[in-house]
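Before the break, one more example. Copy the sequence into your notebook; we will annotate it together after we see the structure.
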Amino acid sequence: MLDIKFVRENPEVVKENIRKKFQDQKLPLVDEVLELDKENRAIKQEVEALRAQRNKLSKMIGGLMAKGEKEEAEKVKAEIAADAARTEELTVREKEVEERIKVIMMTIPNIIDPSVPIGKDDSENVEVEKFGEPVVPDFEIPYHTDIMESFDGIDLDSARKVAGNGFYYLMGDIARLHSAVLAYARDFMIGRGFKYCIPPFMIRSNVVTGVMSFTEMENMMYKIEGEDLYLIGTSEHSMIGKFIDTQNKAEDLPQCLTSYSPCFRKEKGAHGIEERGVYRIHQFEKQEMIVVCNPDESPMWYDKLWQNTVDLFRTMDIPVRTLECCSGDLADLKVKSVDVEAWSPRQKKYFEVGSCSNLGDAQARRLGIRVQDANGKKYFAHTLNNTVAAPPRMLIAFLENNLQADGTVKIPEVLWPYMGGTKVLVPTKK
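Here is what the structure looks like once it is written out:
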């Protein structure tokens, strides 16, 4: 969310930013909010004047009564009553105006970084760098659920009966591998200096609107019926929410946290076979990382965060690349974002396994995450988030890249301790 003062002083910059995000339908909101802001300031000024007048007139009444000028005193009382009625009227209108201003300001997108490529949607995202050599083996790579089924590792039919489409049972070695990856990702991030946290898996509506746009909220979040609670779509939401309405000392930043959680999302239906199985699902588990820092440090932390994910995947012999998100693919609160994509030897292309974002002070402004430096200066913190690992989607990349010609799956050395020393998974079915 932008500062209203910034919008007031830079309306054309805000409008141009909206155009860069191909959201021209929001352009009228800028003029509307400026008019409302003007009205709001005028209301406050009039209310302040009315209250000053009331204080002045109230002091007059005692003097008039002491002089026996009851008629004049009654006139003053009538004037005070009229002013009170006007003040009440203005107060009601002020509340209406401020609520509308808040809605608009939460709808106008954040100012994107100058380095963000301009494009309408994810088809115009730009490849930045590749890590590891993408290999297509000389044997056929089965569909990911077929690989899992060869280990008796997945049951979609039972899950469908229990919960519907978009859910799964992971079984045996595949379930163990799933847990092993999460445990390894946890320890990997602890080794990088992040504090481990298990957060609430439900959050209140004020936290939801603090961390994401209205559109994201509607498309992603599951609402708990009869409660002011939502199931989290990612632990980033409750992790950033941890700092709501806080005053942080500059010297205590950055706060670097890594968290585990289940995640629940209203994912749209799968498009094509490769997005079926466990690729696009309503429930999954994830290791996440977030940073709350001073504004001048957020570009540095942005690069550190996505590099952590790249390094993690490379230790598991999975080639990856980074993809700069274009302006039209950025969620409204984001300043800059990069996707980490893993190589799929089956599809002979990369697919998304994580996303790293710098949100500037947008979340901090909405949630009241403030900082005070040694000189007493107060400002809003910057927040960042990034996926460490999100199985089972990342399991697709893991299984495809570590599958051998005989149907076995090689376990990278970093996972051996988490797999009880198992170095190779052997299929139970042919």
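The mean pLDDT is 94. The chain is about 40% helix and 20% strand. Try to locate both features in your own notes.
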